[in-house]
Amino acid sequence: MPSDTPTATAPAARATQIGKDLPYLEVGTAAYRRMTAILFVAGFSTFATLYCVQPLLPDFVRAYGISPPGASLSLSVTTAALAVALLVAGAISDRSGRKGIMVASLALSGGLGLASALAPSWPLFLVLRALAGLALGGLPAVAMAYVAEEVNPKSAGLTMGLYIGGTAMGGMAGRILTVLITDISSWRVAVGLVGAVGILAALTVAMALPPSRHFRQREGGQGMKGLWSGLTAAWRLHLSDSGLVALFATGFLAMGAFVTVFNYVGFRLQAPPLNAPPATVAVLFLVYVFGIISSPLFGGLSSRFGPGRVLVASAVLMLAGLGIMDIARLDTLALGLGLFTFAFFGVHSVASGWIGLRARQHRGQASALYLFAYYMGSTLAGTAGGFFWHGWEWTGITLFVGGLLGLLILNALGQAAGRAE
Asked: Where is it localised (predicted)?
């Protein structure tokens, strides 16, 4: 397994000193361009794997005779497992290095994607999706820590935005490709192809991502006892910081709102009065392009105007997009969904970059805790939204998501006032 950990023959103190002397990756250099391109590929693959099942929920309902909340488990079990794995992956990467963990994550999740495409039953498919979530835990938090360590801090917001742009592209491609391929072939072929992309991404990261130069190995006790001791120490440190806790809440609320909308918008599109065909549903997922644009844009704006102000603005824009979607017309729904997506990736980009700047120690664990909250928002709200859909259809979704966004705006106002500075 490729590793960016200092070799055993080099003393730790010497490795740390060498890391201090080496320059950061700077915007405009060849090394920086290669790093951002490779992280874009990694983010693309991870989120294609994670979200490729989301547009298939109506198909699962029809094929297996399950309810919408039951169908949403194909995503929820993955995000729940991912959230838990992130906590351990961050601690392991703090000790063993970043690059090797990212390569293993992509390779394992890709292989499990191929296996899930062959699963003969719904329960087995869910088990494989949960295992894929565990495997995927080795990339998002580790990638955030890698950026925080290797890139000039002045460019951290922009760089994180570029990485998140890759995740947006992956989420979009995973959704669109599964719809289109399922329409002409089957969902099994679509999910299998996404798995193959994950394996190719692992090879790309292994061969081309620049090794860490500023990684400092976290010392601690040996074995599980030492690992647990390090985890709890990091959790206590970060959870005692009110600014970080506010950022964790930002991730939970924003992602809960975002996934709920995308879980059930397909049901709304295919129901009266819209009655949209599957191809239209696939085209609508092109709104993810707005996320690819907004991630680096909002990341750059946060460096210029301050993350607090930009966070408030992007949260308000999410609420505006939700309101526009309430109009039962295809064009207004597309407009509202585009604004909602544009603003969501702004929230996520700003909060992600802010985590890396605020956490001075245990950065891998700080990123992991943020993403734990982020994906628990996806898991809990995404499933709960199904009951609102079942009871009140899109009106229920609007009320539920509107409540989450109201809390998000209040939290962002508190951060802008200085509690997370």
From this structure: Cell membrane
